[in-house]
Amino acid sequence: xxxxxxxxxxxxxxxxxVSGSDGEDTSWISWYCNLRGxxxxxxxxxxYIQDDFNLCGLSSQVPYYDYALDLxxxxxxxxxxxxxxxxxxLVESAAEMLYGLIHARYILTSKGLAAMLEKYKNYDFGRCxxxxxxxxxxxxxxxxxxxxxxxxxxxxxxxxxHLFLMTYDHLKPQKPSQRYVPRVxxxxxxxx
Length: 192
Hints:
With 192 residues, the protein is mainly alpha-helical. The protein is built from eight helices and two strands.
């Protein structure tokens, strides 16, 4: 066996190990969204990603932008042959970051909001643990639009939950009918 054949079989086995299924029918986007920890992501349409207008300004934020975009869109490229293993890992990391930033823009579109509505209805984002919230479904929000400034909130942005509830105003939580009254040993606390 030549090194080229060995490299191909290793990458094929890695792809099937990571995806946990055939690997042939699964796109990178589907695979990535189904990874543990990525349950909040919805699948962004290929058409949206292929429109350069939607990606405006992202090339300066993401290293290996072109290679990462090819990876996301499942476009065969020969960069695997010219890059070292470390550089391939950087491309994969860049693809994850690029997809997250694209996702933040996509979920503000009508199709993106509809996809997130399904996740919201399925309680994919969890429920509020407060008793007086009565199991209200939660929405993801970023405290910053800047990547890595605070966890990964940039992948949802600061606008999403507000736009979501404006679009689907019938889902807006009602004010609780009861108000929490703090007590110590059954006695109400005085107001300072």
